Amino acid sequence: MGDSELEAIRARRMAELQQQMGGQDVDQEKQRAEALQREQEMKNTMLAQLLDQSARARLNSIALVKPEKAKMVENMLINMARSGQVGGKINEEQLKGLLEQVSEKTGRSGKVKFDRRRLDSDDDDY
To answer: What is the pTM of this model?
Structure first.
C-alpha cells in the first residue's frame, strides 16, 4: 500500500468517526429541544388556565418589554398554583398586584425620575 492509499483510508475512517460522534450530538440536541418545547407548552397551558384574557394580554405585553420580569411573574404564578394559593382565574388587577410585589423584590420602582438642570444666566451670553 502506498502513502496515498493509507491517507485515503485514514480520511474515510476519520469521516466515519466524526459522523458517528456528530450523530450522537444531534440526537442529544434534539432531545433537549423537545424537552424544552414540552416544558414551554405545559407552562403556557397552566398560565392559560390561571389567567383571564386581559391578564394574559398584559403579561404578554410585559414579556415583550421586560422578559426577565415576565418570567419571574410566570414562575410565581405557577408556584402559587402548585401550592394551592390560587382560587380561580386571576384578573388584570390581581396581576398588577403581583407585578408590584415583583418590583418591590427586585428593588426597582418602575418609575422614571428626571433630573433637569437649569442653566446659569451667565451661560446665556453668547
So the answer is: 0.59
